[in-house]
Amino acid sequence: MTENYSSLSLQELQEEQKKIKKSEMYSAAAIGGLVGIALYAIFTGGFNLVAVGIPAGLIYLITRNSKKSKDKANAIKEEIARRS
Predict the structure, then answer these.
(1) Domains held by the chain: number
(2) CA dihedral 10, 16, 19, 25 (to 10 degrees)
(3) The model's pTM
């Protein structure tokens, strides 16, 4: 999803930047929780596909989405810097 950030006002850009930062915090918390769940499952029940595979798959999906939002954040930062 490529957006044209040059058409947004400075305030709208800053709001988008705040949304992305909030999303990154939620992603980090979710990854931490999933890692904790996977480690707990390994230490208590041993290594099995369901207990480790599902959190690992979700971690992959979250990090993939996080990379996209980091690209958006960089584009917004560049646009804000260009205007300043």
Answers:
(1) 1
(2) -90
(3) 0.79
